[in-house]
Design a protein that fits this description.
seven-stranded mixed β-sheet, globular, alpha/beta, 18 helices, D-Maltodextrin-Binding Protein, domain 2
Length: 451
């Protein structure tokens, strides 16, 4: 296993412009002819944004090569800092330069969907059919785009609610195992004191952190984005209105959420707000697992519990939440598609356990293995004993990913519109009705202009 780092000298725009033609001469699906042996292994090249500290590559790839001596993995770390933007730019440059690209890792649905549409990624349905499993049964995340599979999901980072258990106890509240947005608001109100707010929402921020504009939408199994799967504005959805109502009520009426003006003017951050006990709860992704017990930078001086992402109605199934994963794909111009698929299938199953860094999207992980992974993760923090491990495991076991809607190419413009209309509402320039109407109208115009 070799390791190299690509240095990009061109902008991603130039690289993206060259992508469309980069795979024209590539093999159309199917595996390469011939195969490696233990004495003469086939080398596949694996491009990733993940660095050694976050992904344990040395240990992970050694485990793969021990199990599959016929395949050698050449690791290309695209950002030593683990910076996904830098990695994406370098990935595009490598593709435009005609580098051998067998396995590609994408960190978010937008990067994944865009590169599928550019013809950079091969469909893997034939391999899945040959192996005889259904992705939706085998994994917690459905990675299909327009009914075809171009990736298998690696880690499973569902969003959840982190709670200051000391504040919970002081308010006489139990750790919720199943709750609604109404109960979430009630909890936040009861935990709010003169010294701290009940919750802190870290977005939207200049078109980023848009999960905080989809609160009620994201509690559903389908139709969770601002644009529907069939390409219409989803901002007339009652659950988008409900999200605005939650934000408005908590900040303006209940005074239980940190004011948006403070977030923006003081450049507040969720880690500081939570670990400094300025907020009793935060809605955040479970990449925070590695920090739950506190770190040198953010020591933990209280007890922490974890609650599931709230649902909309008491009778709802529950468990649905925004999820981040790593999309593991086979390169469209790979000459070793079968070996590349063998690697991504292993990595997204047994490889997640071997890696020991993340919770896996794979449903084949036993309760015992899940607990062991959680123990390993928490052991890397300063005060693991202050974390309510039972509540964390309960949330991770029961969390479910909503069906992915492939983001539209103009997703950033949609986010900007929603952000702008939200700010007008929260700054008192328009009411909720006007906000919904204006956002819906502007997003529909974007959709029409991009047809």
């Amino acid at each position: 296993m070799k390791k190299k780092l690509w240095i990009a000298g061109l902008s991603s725009m130039l690289a993206l412009g060259s992508l469309a033609g980069c795979s024209e001469g590539s093999e159309k699906g199917g595996a390469s002819s011939g195969g490696g042996t233990a004495d003469d292994p086939t080398t596949i090249t694996f491009y990733t944004h993940g660095n050694e500290a976050s992904y344990n590559w040395n240990k992970t790839l050694a485990a793969f090569e021990k199990e599959h001596p016929e395949i050698n993995v050449d690791l290309v770390v695209l950002s030593e800092k683990g910076d996904t933007n830098e990695a994406t730019q370098k990935l595009d440059l490598a593709a435009a330069s005609g580098e051998q690209m067998d396995v590609l890792m994408f960190s978010d649905p937008t990067s994944y969907a865009q590169r599928v549409s550019l013809g950079m990624v091969a469909p893997i349905d034939e391999f899945i059919e040959k192996d005889g499993y259904k992705v939706t049964e085998e994994y917690k995340v459905d990675t299909a785009i327009d009914g075809q599979y171009y990736a298998l999901p690696g880690k499973f980072n569902p969003w959840y609610v982190l709670l200051n258990k000391d504040h919970l106890d002081a308010a006489g509240l139990e750790v919720p195992k199943d709750w609604t947005w109404d109960e979430f608001m009630e909890y936040s109100k009861k935990m709010t004191t003169a010294d701290h707010k009940g919750t802190y929402f870290h977005g939207p921020q200049n078109g980023g952190w848009m999960e905080y504009m989809k609160l009620a939408l994201a509690s559903e199994e389908t139709n969770t984005d601002f644009v529907t799967e069939d390409g219409k504005s989803n901002l007339n959805n009652p659950l988008f209105r409900k999200t605005l109502e939650i934000r408005q009520k908590m900040e303006k009426e209940d005074k239980s959420a940190t004011p948006y003006t403070d977030i923006m003017s003081q450049k507040l951050h969720y880690r500081t707000q939570f670990f400094n006990q300025d907020a009793s709860s935060i809605l955040i992704g479970s990449w925070m697992n590695t920090e739950l017990g506190g770190t040198d930078q953010f020591p933990l001086n209280f007890n922490v519990a974890v609650a599931p992402y709230p649902k909309n109605n008491p009778e709802d199934e529950g468990g649905f939440t925004p999820v981040t994963t790593d999309f593991m794909s086979v390169g469209a111009n790979s000459e070793h598609k079968e070996e590349a698929y063998t690697f991504i299938r292993w990595y997204t199953t047994d490889g997640q356990i071997a890696q020991g860094k993340n919770i896996a999207s794979w449903n084949g992980v036993s309760d015992e293995e899940l607990t062991k992974t959680v123990d390993t993760i928490l052991a890397g923090t300063v005060s693991p004993e202050k974390v309510d491990k039972e509540s964390l495991i309960n949330v991770l076991k029961n969390a479910k990913s909503s069906k992915m809607t492939a983001p539209v190419p103009y997703n950033a413009e949609v986010s900007k519109v929603v952000n702008e209309e939200y700010e007008k509402m929260i700054f008192g320039e328009q009411d909720i009705d006007e906000t919904v109407k204006n956002a819906d109208q502007r997003v529909q115009e974007l959709i029409d202009n991009n047809k």
